[in-house]
Structure formats: structure tokens, C-alpha cells
């Protein structure tokens, strides 16, 4: 069940990064950074990081450059701990 949750939250996080990048280019309503961080914290850090790389979005923000990869490591640790027991 955790796998389905992680897939869904990471796909949504990736989509949010895409949506925010497109909104930035079009000068339209943007996704608040707090929402991006929320998705990263609840398990979508890999999706946010993939979106950062794929869409070249938020890559100059130091807090994203450092914080998101650290959250990916935390997520990997939590999943590994869950699998091992």
C-alpha cells in the first residue's frame, strides 16, 4: 500500500513542478513554494527533484538545491526501514 501512496504523491509532485514552471513562463498564478515543500515532505521529494531537473525549475534556490535531495535520502531511509522491518 505504501508503494501506491509514494507513486501517487511523486507523480503529483512532478506534475506540480511542471505546472509551476509553465505558469512562471506564462506569468500566471503560481504554485506556492509552501505547497511544493508540503509535497516533498509527505513523500514526494523524488518527484519534486525529478521536476527540478526535468524542467530546470527552482534549481537556483539554495533551499531547494539542498533540502530536496536531503528529503529524498530521508524518504529512502524510511522506505528501507519499512521494508526491513
From TrEMBL:
Signal peptide: none annotated. The keyword Zinc-finger does not apply. It comes from the Bacteria. The chain crosses the membrane at residues 36-54, 66-84. Keywords: Membrane, Transmembrane, Transmembrane helix. GO terms for molecular function: nucleic acid binding. InterPro entries: Cold_shock_CspA, DUF1294. It holds the Pfam family DUF1294. This is DUF1294 domain-containing protein. It comes from Fictibacillus enclensis.
Amino acid at each position: 500500500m505504501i508503494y501506491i501512496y509514494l507513486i501517487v504523491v511523486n507523480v503529483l509532485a512532478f506534475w506540480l513542478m511542471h505546472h509551476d514552471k509553465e505558469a512562471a513562463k506564462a506569468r500566471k498564478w503560481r504554485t506556492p513554494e509552501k505547497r511544493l515543500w508540503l509535497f516533498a515532505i509527505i513523500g514526494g521529494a523524488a518527484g519534486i527533484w525529478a521536476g527540478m531537473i526535468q524542467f530546470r525549475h527552482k534549481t537556483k534556490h539554495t533551499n531547494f538545491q539542498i533540502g530536496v535531495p536531503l528529503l529524498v535520502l530521508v524518504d529512502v531511509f524510511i522506505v528501507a526501514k519499512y521494508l526491513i522491518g
